[in-house]
Amino acid sequence: MCDDHGIIRSGIRRILEGTPDFQLRAAAPTGKLLVEAIEQFRPELAVVDIRLPDGSGLDLLESIAAISPSTNVVMLSMYGARGYVEKAKTRGARGYITKECLEEELIEVLHAVMADDKFVSYVREEAISRDVECHPTVDVDILSSRELEVLKLIAAGLTNSEVADELRVSPRTVESHRASVQRKLLVRTRAELTRVAREAGLLD
Q1: Using CA atoms, how far apart are residues 177 and 107, in angstroms rounded to an integer?
Q2: Which of 9, 24, 64, 90 is most buried when burial is the number of CB atoms within 10 A of its CB?
């Protein structure tokens, strides 16, 4: 299992340890540590958050498949938009579930994935409705972890120089990341970057 939030890892650990059919072998906070755990344990099942501090969980699907083809991956996300679900399915995930799920719903999805070759998703209708309303075109999961940091800081009102100081990089590096973010998200102005960050839930 992989999620960068300790409370989520603890919650899933508690759920799985209370379910006789599953045994938790590792709980990783980063994609790098997850890949190392996959290499060590070759699990039948992996629950992976889409957004990780060192990249997108979706980008790990190919590596996991190469290391352990028999590992079934269920993606875990805050978002229930159909675009995210389809992307997970296309890239080889076996299941998709949002963090709004109940304990029994998580277990139901995991059982279904292990019992059948079909792709399984459990997304609450209200999550779909909210994402359609609030996240109509935003797909920040295509950004690298550093690009996400730059986006959040710029959207918070910091100048390029202030972002550079915060991240301990050069202003030129920040400008390069900002240009990449704007190109990937098809936006041009600071106001548009702020809107994108807000709609993606990156701003507190």
Answers
A1: 39
A2: 64
- Measured N-to-C along each axis, helices 103-115 and 6-17 cross at an angle, to the nearest 10 degrees, of 70
- Quick check: 151 and 140 in contact, CB under 8 A? yes
Q: What's the confidence (pLDDT) of residue 144?
A: 85
In a 13 Å sphere around the CA of 122, the CA atoms on its Cβ side amount to 19
pLDDT tens per residue, range 18-33: 898 899 999 999 999 9
pTM of the model: 0.65
Cβ-count burial of 153 within 10 angstroms (0-12 exposed, 13-18 middle, 19+ buried)? Answer: buried
Please tell me the predicted confidence (pLDDT) of residue 203: 74
Alpha carbons 110 and 33: distance in angstroms, whole number: 22
